[in-house]
Each structure stands twice: as structure tokens, then as C-alpha cells.
Design brief:
mainly alpha, Tetracycline Repressor, domain 2, 76% helix, DNA-binding, homodimer
Chain lengths: 197, 197
DNA sequence: CGATACTGTATGTGTTCGCTTACATTGTGC
DNA sequence: GCACAATGTAAGCGAACACATACAGTATCG
């Protein structure tokens, strides 16, 4: 049994590069030639790692979400004891939301969502995102109970919407950095509390 | 001066067809051949009406927003005297939000936003959308003043975010129709009032 | 060693795309 | 009715694309 396969490791080492490429170029302009060049390999090597370009795209979407979630989890480990986890996340995102531009790969995915595989991948990613946020909101509210006009599951979706519109505004230059911070902070807090205070 | 030009009329008559095509197919799959076939003309006729495919896309985006805004204005004229205009819009959108699928052309645009023309068009469209919503929120709050924790301009952006996440959920099948209605209704009202009640 | 599967390089290939060109037909103002 | 621009039809063109093939080098095992 000569030369054990390094396919798995190779896939993992190239995924960040693919994710960056799709993020910067979108799906259409991220040609297989461009992907291969950025990876420093020939095209057919990519085709030995994934069956087709769509599979590379789908893998990149999942990688990007994993990356984001790990960033948040690391943040929560680092910073302890200054408010609830949800508040820390909100403060962090008000500062840094979208600065990696990774939301662009989601936009690219949404415009390819007529494809069943892409749609299913996005559905799973959004479901995970929602579950994560829901957990944060619920534990925040348990720590500081209040009259809750806004159910936590809806609040979690609304937070996703808030992040999305913030990303859109960033992409289009429709809001200044300061206004985007204000938007995330103010609306985020109201959604988090489910009430105004 | 023989045969006056009907270019302007032709453009206007084909715009809805182009908008539908881009909406259904996205930018990439809406090939010029497909656009021409749906319009019932040859490709080069499209090229006599617009300089290139991108211009057709940009015109379609603007048409879609005009169409939506006119729908809302007609709604406000039709239904009188049952709550504020903003409340009527909210109730209407909770029922019908996104059912034309026109949001898809916005997704397509966002994934082509690295192009300056596309980005500028989207920026203008979002600015008009924000201005429209802001006007509705302000006049609603004037009619029924309340302690406002949430500034109206931020509320307007948040409403756009709410609509966007609702569209995403529709596209991906991530929420049932009933849950989407509940989301728009509950969060929408809270954003509109800038407070809970 | 030496067989063998893994890894990399170079070069097609059929198709599709955005866009163009050539040319025939039509309708209007003088 | 005739000049002439507007309108339509048909064909094609270079480039780019996703993906494939052919083959040389290489590391690992018995």
C-alpha cells in the first residue's frame, strides 16, 4: 500500500484559499483557472479534490461559517466577566462586523440558490447561525429577566437581518462606519432585550 | 425625417420581461440568448436598446424597485382610514412580502456589486427605499407619539434588514409562511414603535 | 528494490457566452 | 414615390469557460 493519501489534508489546506477567492470574486468570476492559480496548483488537482466547481463553492461556504463561529467562540473564551456573552458578541460585531468580507460568499450563494445543493447548504448554514444566536439570546435573558415582548426565536432571525443589512450597507457604502456601528448597537440591544430600556 | 424612433417605447415594453428573466435566472444564467428569446426578439435588438448586458441588468434593477414602490403607493391610496400608512404597509408585507420573487434580482446584484455601475445602482435603490420607509415611520410616530428608544433612521434600516432576512428565509425554505408572517409582524411593530407595548 | 498509487505539469476540447456584422424589409416625411 | 433611417433576420466570431486527458515524477510499502 504505497504512499498514503494526503487528499484530506490538501483539501483542508486549500479551503481557506478557495473561500477567499469566492469571497473576492463571487461565483461567476471565480473561474477554475483563477482558483487553481490562487491555490498554486493546476486545475486538475482541484478536480481530484472535489468533483466539480460547485462542490468547491459549497465547501467554501461551509468553511466560512465554521471560521466565523470559531471566531465568536474564541472571543467568548478570551473575554470573561464583562456582561453576558450576547452583549460581548454585539459589542464585538459593532466594531468588526463584516470586515473580512466573508458575507460576500453568502451573497454569491444566494444568487445561485436555484441550485438545490447550494440552497441546501445555505439552509443548513443559516439554521446553525440561528441556533447559535438563539442560544446566546436565551441565556442572556435568563441572566437578566425582563418583560419580553419579542420571542427569542424571532429576535434571533431579526439579528441575522440586522447583520445582513449592515453587510449590504458596508458593501454599497450606503452607511458610514460610525452609522453602521450605531445601527448594530442600538437595534441589536433592542432585539436582545426584546424590549426597550 | 423618415420613421420616428420607437426605441424609448420598446425599451419600456421589454423592461418587465428582462426583470422577470434576471429575477428567475440570476445574472449569470440570464444569457443574452435567453433574454432575447423571452423578449421575442433577436439578440442584436437588445444591443440596439442597451449598450451591453450590464446596462440591461441595471435597468431591470431600477424597474423592479419602481414597480415595488408603485405597488405600495397604490396600496396606500386604496386603503384609507385603518391605522397609519406604516401599519398598513406592515400588514400588507406580512401577507405578501417577496411573493413576486423580485428580491432575487437584488441578490444577483449584490453578488455583482464589485462592478461600480451595479454597486452605484444598488446604492441609489437602497437609499430610495430607506427614504421611503423613513418617511412612513416618521409620520406614523408623529400621529401616535411615544417614548422612542430607537431613532427612526436606524429603524428604517432595520426594517430593510427584516425584509431581507424574510426574503432569505423564503428563498431557502428556512421558515414556514406562518413563521415568516409572525416575524414581520412582531419585529416590524417593535421597530415601528421604537419601543415595546 | 520495485511495484504501485499518489502527486504534479502541460496541453487539449467541446461548448457557451457576449457581442458583432451583413443584409433584407418596412414605414414615414417630404 | 422615393430617399432614408428605423427595424428585423440570420449567421458568425473570438474569447473564456468547465472540465478532461496524457504522461512524468515521487514517496511509501512489502
Amino acid at each position: 500500500m504505497p504512499r498514503p493519501s494526503r487528499i484530506r489534508e490538501k483539501r483542508e489546506s486549500l479551503l481557506p484559499v478557495l473561500a477567499d477567492a469566492f469571497t473576492e470574486l463571487g461565483y461567476r468570476r471565480a473561474t477554475t483557472a483563477a482558483l487553481a492559480e490562487r491555490c498554486g496548483v493546476q486545475e486538475n488537482i482541484l478536480y481530484r479534490l472535489w468533483p466539480d466547481k460547485k462542490a468547491m463553492f459549497v465547501a467554501a461556504i461551509e468553511y466560512v461559517y465554521d471560521f466565523s463561529e470559531q471566531t465568536w467562540l474564541r472571543l467568548l473564551e478570551r473575554r470573561r466577566g464583562e456582561g453576558s456573552a450576547a452583549q460581548k458578541l454585539l459589542a464585538f460585531e459593532a466594531e468588526h462586523h463584516g470586515e473580512f468580507g466573508h458575507y460576500r460568499i453568502i451573497f454569491a450563494g444566494l444568487s445561485e440558490a436555484d441550485d438545490p445543493d447550494v440552497r441546501e447548504t445555505l439552509r443548513r448554514v443559516y439554521a446553525r447561525f440561528h441556533r447559535f444566536l438563539l442560544g446566546q439570546i436565551v441565556s442572556h435573558r435568563q441572566a437578566a429577566p425582563a418583560p419580553q415582548a419579542l420571542p427569542a426565536d424571532l429576535a434571533a432571525w431579526a439579528v441575522i437581518g440586522l447583520g445582513t443589512v449592515s453587510n449590504i450597507a458596508r458593501e454599497l457604502g450606503a452607511l458610514s462606519d460610525a452609522d453602521r456601528r450605531r445601527l448594530i448597537h442600538t437595534v441589536g440591544r433592542q432585539l436582545l432585550e426584546g424590549d426597550s430600556r
